[in-house]
Amino acid sequence: MKEVRGVYGGNFSDSDVHDFCDYLYNNHGYFKYVYVYQSSSPDALKYATLDDILYWSGHGWSTGHLSYGLTEGQKEVEESNKFYGPEYVGINWVTQGKTTNSYWNSDLEWVIFAACDQMKEPARTKWAKTMLGTQHQVHGICGYEGTGPGDIVDNAIVEKFMAYLNAGYSFCFCWEMANETNGK
Fold it and tell me: What is the spatial distance between Cα 6 and Cα 1, in angstroms, rounded to a whole number?
């Protein structure tokens, strides 16, 4: 059984998360888990290991922080609604070698962070280290080096991503092309 986990940790519109998960559910038979606004939590990130795809949308910082648990329209992202994502997923990776204790060591294959700065240093290196280890580690992580596009464009990117995926292109290529098509 294929599973997709969608998490919205922002404070505007969660529609891109629903579009992404609903598409895979309706067209490819994925079972879906969706966590939005205050139902999103750090554990939604950690336990994505049980799913095949994780789509996380919200605010991000170059440290690897991601937002979670906000209320719709909340103006500020307070410290209590941020956490160090990579460290929470795999806190004790080995700096030299090829292993890590990442929670993402079961079924998770692909991760998309529709959030700012997750592919900017030092976040990029931290996320890459969560992929080290057993034969069941994540295959790839997609995201943004700078500012993410935001609500309306997020939905257009999801739509194009799915069109490229249906055409048989690779997961990461689909993400890249969907973003280029939408001016990101």
Answer: 17
> What is the rounded distance in angstroms from the CA atom of residue 154 to the CA atom of residue 84?
23
Residue 3 DSSP one-character state: E
Q: Is 31 helix (H, G, I), strand (E, B) or coil?
A: strand
- For the stretch 20-44, pLDDT in tens is 999 999 999 999 999 887 777 778 8
3-class DSSP state of 150: coil
* Cβ pair 13, 58 in contact under 8 A: no
Q: How far apart are CA 97 and CA 129, in angstroms?
A: 11
Helix ranges (H only) for 55-150 are: 85-89, 123-129
111, β-bridge pairs: 54, 141
Tell if the pTM clears 0.85, that is, is over it. Answer: yes
